[in-house]
Amino acid sequence: MAQAKKVTFWILVVFVGYTIIHSPARAAELVQIGFEGISDAAKSIGEFMTQLIN
Predict the structure, then answer these.
(1) How far apart (Å, rounded) are the C-alpha atoms in residues 46 and 27?
(2) Please, which domain of life does this record's source organism belong to (predicted)?
(3) Cβ contacts of 16 within 8 Å, gap of 6 or more
(4) pLDDT of 19-54, one tens digit each?
(5) How far is CA 4 from CA 13, 16, 18, 33, in A?
(6) Stretch 8-29: mean pLDDT, rounded?
(7) According to the model, what pLDDT value does residue 5 have?
(8) If we measure between CA atoms, which residue out of 30, 7, 34 comes closest to residue 19?
(9) What's the confidence (pLDDT) of residue 3?
(10) d(Cα 53, Cα 45) in Å, to the nearest integer?
(11) Residue 1: pLDDT band by 50, 70, 90 thresholds?
């Protein structure tokens, strides 16, 4: 099981590295989309908690 995790991790690392080298603009766009999603989720949780308190 541990060996499978290591292999999966290194495949993911190679894929991310290849994507960044091959298409840096697309990689930057994907990172931006990911951070926007995290930001939106945090804002939504904050609004939800605020509504619970009020």
Answers:
(1) 29
(2) Bacteria
(3) 27
(4) 889 999 998 999 999 999 999 999 999 999 999 998
(5) 14, 18, 21, 29
(6) 92
(7) 92
(8) 30
(9) 92
(10) 12
(11) confident
- In the three-class reduction of DSSP (H, G, I as helix; E, B as strand; rest coil), residue 16 is classed as helix
Please give, one letter per residue, the 3-state secondary structure of 21-49: HHCHHHHHHHHHHHHHHHHHHHHHHHHHH
Rounded distance between C-alpha atoms, residue 13 and residue 10, angstroms = 5
Element (H, E) at 19: helix 2-22
Helix axes 2-22, 24-53, angle to 10 degrees: 110
